[in-house]
Amino acid sequence: MTIIKNGTLVLPDGVRRGELAFENGVITKIAPVLEAGAQDQVFDAQGCLVFPGFIDGHTHLDMDSGTTVTADDFASGSCAAVCGGTTTLVDFATQDKGHTLCEALDAWHQKADGKCACNYAFHMAVTDWNERTCAELPIMKERGVTSFKAYYAYDNLRLDDAQMYQLLCALQPLHGVLGVHCENGTLVNELQQEQLARGVTGPAGHPASRPPVVEAEAIRRLCAVAKLADSTVHIVHLSSAEGLEEVRRARRAGQTVWAETCPQYLVLDDSRYALEGFEGAKYIMSPPLRSEADRQTLRQAVKNGEIDTISTDHCSYRFDTQKVLGKDDFTKIPNGAPGIEHRPALIYTSFVATDEMTAAEMCRLLAENPAKLFGMWPRKGCLAEGSDADITVWDPAARWTIRAATQHQNVDYTPYEGFEAIGRPRAVYVGGELAAKDGEPTGVCAGRYVKR
């Protein structure tokens, strides 16, 4: 048995001093004080917060974009995750046109099984909606997939409104949750061609071709479709004040709308696209970084409790060999940025250390709400007797600087280079096994598939 002593526990009912014990991968006892036996291992968490392991509900590992494959696979991505305090990730198994959901799920299991330092689950991205695909949805549930993804952008991925409606209706009896990438893909295509016709080929063309209105329009349309289907819906990577207002509009009308945002939209702004040379390519992601006003509006929404989860949309490409594929055409720059390792430190530094958020609120955004939304609660996302021993012991006194040179993400840059961070994990347990210590991996491959 292992006992974590002298820490401050972040529990579902509040934050208080206490100690916890775990054995065989499960938390067995939580009490103000626990006595250790001669055979027990003791971890002294003096001065530390003890969180349930964080859950990243939005990652893209070992993903083939058609022209290149993401720099992080499940081995490197999960290693980086645990070093930052994340113990479970949810990646996107993606159906190819003409293929089945089962084929996609099998392919992602092959990518991940036996290779992960942290636990992993899969959303299923539906890109080819037809009767065969619909018939597979109950099979997905049997195989532990309770959350799905659809796109309103990207020609090879997106569904139209009728298909979105049919998918939402089909998921209802299964209690499946649908997350949607909300950008009007038809408008994005047109605006991209406008930028290129004007001679804008560099990174600045990216935000110009994906303005906030194309996000807001897609969110409003999705909420209308969800209302017709009488369905809950999940807005992923919300990035703009205009998009947030559409979420608010739907909620005021009585709809249940879950909203996710990402650290990049809370910490960075679109001035990065004006950097000299090709540096702005490091920040090519969709939706793009927004204005400072958008950033401040989203930060306030987080503090107001209007945002339900904060995930990363981790999708890493090397700058020196992959981002440069679009050096003469911004539409060909591989779309995505790394972040799986640094999310907890970014949120702790930006909100908790500044007293704009409590540790309990951070826990809800990074652990509790993702566990509830994606069908893992209370096995994951909370410290409770009987829950899995996924635990992040957080040292709030740590001071360090985010650097590409010292990160574990398999990529040659970080969007947060030079960020002065407050707090980092002192110890990270995955299923009761020590997976990382003081921000470094132990080499333990403790990750297991989370059948939900």
UniProtKB/TrEMBL annotation:
Pfam families: Amidohydro_1. It is an enzyme of class 3 (hydrolase). GO terms for molecular function: dihydropyrimidinase activity. Keywords: Hydrolase, Metal-binding. Transmembrane segments: none annotated. CDD domains: D-HYD. Its cofactor is Zn(2+). Its EC number is 3.5.2.2. SUPFAM superfamilies: Composite domain of metallo-dependent hydrolases, Metallo-dependent hydrolases. Residues 49-433 form the Amidohydrolase-related domain. InterPro entries: Amidohydro-rel, Hydantoinase/dihydroPyrase, Metal-dep_hydrolase_composite, Metal_Hydrolase, Metallo-dep_Hydrolases_sf. Belongs to the metallo-dependent hydrolases superfamily. Hydantoinase/dihydropyrimidinase family. This is Dihydropyrimidinase.
